[in-house]
């Protein structure tokens, strides 16, 4: 039995797409253990929507190449599912990217729900298209054609990605946190290759580029996520000690000796007493609350601070391009934020911190700065405990 060139094309197209689906399934299974986290649940939803997109693209290719019986109804349904899955996939990537950027937008579930309006608009347009053919249609000869409003399908989908990736790109220049900057840039450049491939496939629909480029971009995003897992403290989701050391080395390489850097060492007062009296669950909750206070307190620095859990109940904030007045304001801010979080938590114990500050330059090692800040921190702790 002789196989036509169209069938060979279809077989190759299907094999490539199914391989991409398999890779997405592997990523999905590898991240399944972390889906209790909100961002990871949205990551899983984005991957599933992407797999749905791959499968609808495969179904369309099988119809066009003759691997499945070609019919007008079949191709209309296949293309409708394909374009709907495109918008759905872009929406879930949008939500996931907003969570990864700590966007206040996604803190409100109603706003997230309202933002899905373009998905529903696409659904309505695709249903109407079955009768109007404004988006695409099958002509009297049974040939698939693009309609006069065909481009709308891409515009409705890509507005999600354009919005969130543009925001990530802008924010990447505002933060000096190396890990955060790297994350934001990986989010910002995520759609570049798929967009280029999408343009080529728009011109030459027979090229199986969309699934391959999306798979490559998702793999890079997944590897970046693994790197984030290695560099983050699992309890507080702050930078870990290794990442702090890396950020300090990068700062030293990029600044002259005369540049000044400030290091704040934060220690939880009477933490052992909290652990011994109320248990390790409450102890962990206390550390998380301190980490949240540090994040909130550092907002006045507009992304210029690197916050890390140094070990146990000790935290470090590394910041440059600030004066002593801003450091004093930062300390005050941290204490006020922690007090506010304590009132909200309504816990049966007092949670406070002591903060030591050391200033230096790239000529000093991180260890030397930590030791200097540690000395200042114990002096403040002694005054606090006396009061």
Describe this structure in words.
It is a single chain. The chain has helices at residues 5-30, 38-65, 72-100, 109-115, 117-132, 152-172, 178-188, 192-203, 209-231, 241-254, 271-278, 280-297, 324-345, 366-386, and strands at 136-138, 144-146, 261-268, 305-311, 314-320, 353-360. The chain has 387 residues and is of the alpha+beta class. The chain folds into two domains: 5-231, Rhodopsin 7-helix transmembrane proteins (Rhopdopsin 7-helix transmembrane proteins), CATH 1.20.1070; 241-386, Alpha-Beta Plaits (2-Layer Sandwich), CATH 3.30.70.270. Strands 4-5-3-6 form a four-stranded antiparallel sheet, with helices on both faces. A two-stranded antiparallel ribbon has the order 1-2. Strand 1 and strand 2 form a beta hairpin. Helix 7 packs antiparallel against helix 9 (209-231). It is elongated and about 90 Å long. The N and C termini lie far apart (92 Å). The mean pLDDT is 85.
Beta strand count:
6
Strand content: 5-15%
Order of helices and strands: HHHHHEEHHHHHEHHEEHEH
**CATH homologous superfamily of the largest domain - what is it?**
Rhodopsin 7-helix transmembrane proteins
Distance between the termini: 92 Å
CATH class of the largest domain: Mainly Alpha
Total of DSSP H or I helical runs spanning 4+ residues? 14
Helix content: 55-70%
Q: How is the main sheet built?
A: 4 strands, antiparallel
Based on CA inertia axes, which overall geometry fits? elongated
Class based on secondary structure composition and strand pairing:
alpha+beta
What low-confidence regions span 5 or more consecutive residues with pLDDT below 50?
Answer: none
Mean pLDDT equals: 85
Q: Write down the CATH topology of the largest domain.
A: Rhopdopsin 7-helix transmembrane proteins
State the CATH architecture of the largest domain: Up-down Bundle
Radius of gyration: 27 Å
Number of domains: 2
The side-by-side strand order for the widest beta sheet comes to: 4-5-3-6
């Amino acid at each position: 039995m002789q196989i036509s060139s169209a069938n060979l094309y279809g077989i190759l197209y299907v094999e490539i797409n199914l391989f991409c689906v398999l890779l997405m399934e592997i990523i999905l299974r590898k991240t399944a253990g972390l889906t209790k986290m909100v961002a990871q649940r949205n990551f899983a939803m984005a991957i599933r929507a992407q797999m749905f997109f791959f499968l609808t693209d495969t179904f369309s290719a099988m119809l066009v190449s003759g691997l499945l019986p070609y019919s007008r109804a079949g191709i209309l349904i296949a293309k409708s599912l394909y374009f709907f899955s495109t918008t759905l996939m872009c929406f879930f990537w949008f939500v996931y990217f907003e969570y990864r950027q700590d966007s206040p937008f996604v803190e409100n579930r109603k706003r997230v729900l309202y933002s899905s309006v373009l998905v529903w608009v696409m659904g309505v347009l695709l249903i109407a298209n079955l009768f109007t053919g404004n988006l695409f249609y099958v002509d009297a000869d049974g040939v698939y054609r693009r309609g006069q409003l065909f481009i709308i399908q891409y515009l409705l989908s890509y507005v999600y990605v354009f919005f969130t990736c543009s925001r990530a790109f802008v924010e990447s220049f505002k933060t000096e946190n190396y890990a955060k900057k790297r994350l934001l840039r990986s989010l910002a450049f995520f759609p570049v290759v798929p967009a280029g491939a999408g343009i080529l496939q728009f011109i030459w629909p027979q090229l199986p580029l969309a699934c391959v480029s999306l798979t490559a971009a998702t793999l890079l995003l997944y590897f970046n996520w693994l790197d984030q897992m290695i560099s983050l403290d699992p309890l507080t989701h702050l930078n870990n000690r290794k990442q702090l050391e890396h950020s300090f080395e990068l700062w030293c390489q990029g600044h002259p000796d005369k540049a000044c850097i400030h290091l704040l060492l934060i220690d939880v007062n009477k933490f052992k007493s909290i652990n011994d009296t109320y248990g390790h669950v409450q102890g962990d909750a206390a550390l998380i609350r301190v980490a949240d206070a540090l994040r909130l307190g550092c907002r006045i620095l507009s992304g210029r601070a690197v916050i890390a859990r140094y070990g146990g109940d000790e935290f470090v904030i590394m910041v440059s391009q600030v004066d002593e007045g801003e450091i004093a304001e930062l300390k005050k801010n941290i204490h006020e934020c922690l007090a506010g979080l304590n009132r909200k938590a309504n816990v049966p114990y007092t949670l406070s911190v002591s903060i030591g500050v050391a200033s230096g330059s790239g000529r000093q090692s991180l260890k030397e700065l930590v030791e200097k800040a540690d000395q200042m921190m114990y002096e403040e702790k002694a005054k606090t405990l006396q009061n």
